[in-house]
Amino acid sequence: MILRGMDVKDLTAPNLNFHDMSPGGYGYDKVANAVELDIINGSNGYFKPWETVTRAQMAAILSRAYDLEGNTNSNFTDVNENHWAYSNIQALVANKITTGYSDQTFRPNAFIQRQHFSLFLERNFNDFFKPGSPGPSPDPDPEPEQKVNFVGTIKDDKGELISGAEIQLYDENNDIVAEAITIGNGEFIILVESGEYSLSVTHENYEAYELQELTVNADAENEVNITLQSTQVSFEYLELNQPYVSGDNGMTVELNSLEKIDQGGFYEYIFNYTETNHTKDVIPQGAFKLYFQNEEPVPQYGFFNDLYPGESATREYRFKVLKSSEPYCLEYGGNLFFKEEPTAEILKWEIS
């Protein structure tokens, strides 16, 4: 809306490099334009597009967007000269865009309400709405209830952030009052009124999590850090350059090397292996299969030739994997074609 008021057309803005916004995503072009014009900026590599805006932040945005300047003798009891947005708030007062509240406060940390945002813009564009005109004068007092930002993180038992979880908040009657908005890999935000709640987290690869008592307070930082326990079987992964006998087909297998190469749009996993038949029988060569987090496994790979007693064969194979995929296990066996997930009795190596 501010960009429209400035009659700004889409600019050729640089890549934002925000972890929580991607080119082509909702609002990306508008945010890029505003950043290019130095109206807004991010924080520590994040823009936090789903967070609410405070009155102080809005003062900074408006004063930057419309080059507002000025000083007044207004003395808000909650904004002193050391406040980061002091000059921005002074500029809004000097240009009769805000008057503050009747109790001599500006309430810089209060979330900007739609009525205030609309009034600030109208006062900037139309003198009719400025104090002293026939239009409205003081900033309207806020509604009794203000919604509060409640933020959190979801990690596994290794401390790594987890994406793809479903987070829901329940009131005292066990009714769903809000669903979380994911703002990053394993980070979420919920906008609710102050009160007592319970919270649940579900994920297809982790045990369900419930927090029965959760207090959300408008006067405090509301944050919770959640750790989920994996439901996947914990495997004992094998080492490189060590021979192992497959209990599946009796073949001795050694993974000589496993390399990951960045090919630009994808990763290429290259592995070199040796199969040796130390038995007295003719054994068909086995196959490899690559497993992913939250995705179907890559079909098995193998040559399926017979190896005679004492015979060896060394091969190399390359898996091409999208960067958005998360491979975690390479498995060897006699026939892996119909397997959907790795099992403990089969030889396997960890992929990282």
TrEMBL record:
Signal peptide: none annotated. Gene3D superfamilies: Carboxypeptidase-like, regulatory domain (2.60.40.1120). Residues 14-71, 72-135 form the SLH domain. InterPro entries: CarboxyPept-like_regulatory (IPR008969), Cell_Envelope_Struct_Comp (IPR051465), SLH_dom (IPR001119). Transmembrane segments: none annotated. It holds the Pfam family SLH. This is SLH domain-containing protein. It comes from Jeotgalibacillus salarius. The lineage of its organism: Bacteria, Bacillati, Bacillota, Bacilli, Bacillales.
